[in-house]
Amino acid sequence: MTYLVLDRLSKRYGDTTAVENLSLSVNQGEFISLLGPSGCGKTTTLQMIAGFVEVSSGRILLDGRDITHAKPASRGLGVVFQSYALFPHMTVRDNVAFGLRMRKVPQADLQQRVARVLKLVRLDLHADRYPRELSGGQRQRVALARALVIEPPVLLLDEPLSNLDANLREEMQYEIRRIQREVGITTLMVTHDQSEALSISDRVVVMQAGRITQVDAPYTLYEHPRTEFISGFVGKANLLPGERDSNGVVQASLHGQGDLTLSLRPEKIDLCPAGSGRLQGTLASRFFLGSQWLYGVSTSLGELCVVRRNDGGAPLAEGTAVGLDWDPALLRVLSHDEVPA
Q1: CATH number of the domain to which 110 belongs
Q2: Angle, to 10 degrees, between the axis of helix 107-120 and the axis of helix 166-183?
Q3: Domain boundary at 230, 251, 266, which?
Q4: CA distances from 320 to 18, 109, 145, 254, 296 (A)
Q5: Average pLDDT for residues 103-118, to the nearest whole number?
Q6: Cα(65)–Cα(273) distance, rounded to whole angstroms?
Q7: 303 beta partners
Q8: Range of the domain at 258
Q9: Dihedral sign, CA of 117, 123, 125, 126?
């Protein structure tokens, strides 16, 4: 069921347009990520939903109610900021209870709700600690608990994991998803990290230059990017010239010319002995990624990126002649129109 609707939403600052004619329908209980590079308008969109930034044109509907010009407090939305914005002089319990106290929730109800949400985020044993006594991940969970305890209709997350180190960031991705599913709350998260968006979202909204360029489930977005920009931004991609044969089947143009631009993911390319495969090349570089090897292969079509699983064997040496092969069905035709008119 559609719960949150952004209807032709725009934000202009003088002659500069930050968000233009953006429309999106979000289902109740859905986890949506707004993904895009810095300056694409994703944070501005989130701030308009929260009420922190005034809408230039368009509407925001929440459960059928027009909240376009409502004050932030009257919207009742839960917001987790990039900086967490915790009160350093308050304990974990008091930080979480702050919003309820501002709403004059009766003390007995307040204590029950705070206890319940602290258990949900696994901080019930740290309720009397102060933010300075917590790890980065724990502080992030306090901020999440404070947003959830008011029982908001929508949870807004603004780059919530950007201040965490790589290992903790990955751990907290799944923690946020666990909590979101357990509560069943409609959630919008802003991120520039494609792996973060793909791993925990029901749908991903890719933004570029203030507009939406594609909205899809993570798997569909990765396997079927519409444009060159999306193909390169959401994961790694090799761009190849292409054409259609007499039967209309798409194929790579190994002579280097074609009227199509094709995307081929690095893990979809097989390395085979020199002289075999569809294309010949020489290993130009290699990078060890732990579970994978990332190879750069020089070919007549330019340098192609190939990802191979680390099977425990010795890697290929730089300078090795190799063949490259792939299933033509894995080639994706891309549009050159990166931003819709």
Answers
A1: 3.40.50.300
A2: 130
A3: 230
A4: 48, 69, 54, 21, 11
A5: 94
A6: 63
A7: 298
A8: 231-334
A9: negative
CA distance 101 to 33: 31
201-231 confidence digits (pLDDT tens): 999 999 999 999 999 999 999 999 999 999 9
pLDDT in tens, 69-94: 999 999 999 999 888 789 999 999 99
DSSP 316: P
Q: Which residue has the tokens 């791993």?
A: 199
pLDDT digits (tens, 9 = 90+) for 258-304: 899 999 999 999 999 999 999 999 999 999 999 999 999 999 999 99
Backbone angles phi, psi at 328, to 5 degrees: -55, -25
pTM of the model: 0.91
Determine contact, residues 189/179, Cβ cutoff 8 Å: no
pLDDT number for residue 337? 57
Vertex 55: Cα angle to 73 and 40 (nearest 5): 110
CB 99 within 8 A of CB 149: yes
